[in-house]
Amino acid sequence: MLKKTSFPAIIISTFIATSFGIISIGHILSNKPLLFLNYMKSYGLDYADFFKASEKIIDGQSPYDISTNRYVTTPIPAIANTIFVPLGFNNARILFYFLIPLSLAFGYQLITSMFGFTKIDKDLILTAGLIGLLFGYPFYFLLQRENIDGWVFLFLCLGLYWLQNPKKEWASGLFFSLAIVFKVYPVLIVLPILLSKRWRLFFWIGLWLVLWGVITLFWFSDFQTALSSRSQSLFRLDENGSLVATTSLISILINSLGISSVDLLVNLSPIITVLIYGILLSLVIFADYKLGKVNNLELSSYTMYLPFMIALPLLVYHYSFILCLILIPTMCHLWGVSETRAQRKTIFVISTGIALTQWQAIATYSLTENMLSHAIPGLGLLLIMAGITFFKVYTLRLTQREMNS
Question: Is the pTM of this model over 0.70?
Answer without folding.
Answer: yes
